Amino acid sequence: MTSTAQTPLRLQPAPDSATVELLYRIFGDVLIPLEKVREQYFRNLNERSFVAEINSGRIQLPITTLDNSRKAPKYAHIRHVASLIDIRAYKADEEMPRSHNDPTLQDD
């Protein structure tokens, strides 16, 4: 899993500072081990399929290491994880049917 194989991430809005703070409380560092991200948010994927989804661009999460070794631990930066969460939340808001938001269409 090299950085050249990854699809470039186009961050839309900057992550919400509350999201970043909550992630920091959960993980306790700005670099989150990739396996911890998978365990917390992608339990439906095993390690191999999670990496494959990242490499294919389906999960837009840049991977970083602190060493050029192939065996170096892989991390996700807290701001990238926060952006991914916030972007998915914004998309969910957009996809929600308007009838749920319009009080005039709801039954009393």
Give a description of the structure.
- This protein has 108 residues and is mainly alpha-helical.
- Helix content is 44%, strand content 6%.
- The chain has four helices and two strands; from the N terminus they run H-E-H-H-E-H.
- The longest helix has 18 residues, at 78-95.
- The chain is globular, with a radius of gyration of 17 Å.
Report a brief summary of the structure.
The chain has 108 residues and is mainly alpha-helical. It has four helices and two strands.
Helix and strand arrangement:
Layout: H1 17-27, E1 31-33, H2 34-41, H3 47-56, E2 75-77, H4 78-95
Antiparallel strand pairs: 1-2
Helix pairs in contact: 1-4
Jot down its keywords.
mainly alpha, two-stranded antiparallel sheet, 4 helices, 6% strand, globular
Query: How many β-strand stretches?
Result: 2
Major β-sheet profile: 2 strands, antiparallel
Query: How many helix segments?
Result: 4
Helix/strand order, N-terminal first = HEHHEH
What portion of residues belong to β-strands? 5-15%
Mean pLDDT: 86
CA-atom Rg in angstroms: 17 Å
